[in-house]
Amino acid sequence: MLKAVGAALGAVLVLVVGVVVVLDDGNSDTPVAAGACSPLVDAAGRVTGSPVPDGNIAGYSGVQLENADKIITAGKALGLSATGQTIGVMTAMGESSLKILDYGDGPGPDSRGLFQQRANGSWGSYADRMDPRISATNFFKALQRVSGWESLPPTIAANRTQRNADPYHYAPFWGPATEVYSARAGGAVPASGCTSNAGTVGEGDDYPDAGNPHCIIEAGYTCPDGSLNTATSFYFRECVDFAWYRLMQQVGPGAKFTPGSIGAGNAVTWKAAWDRQGWPTSKTPVVGAIAWFDAGFQSPNLYTGPMGHVGVVKAVMGDRIVIEQYNGMAPPNDHRYSTIEVPAGFASAYLYIPIKADQR
Question: Whose C-alpha in 211, 247, 251, 348 is 20 to 30 A from the C-alpha of 156?
Answer without folding.
Answer: 348
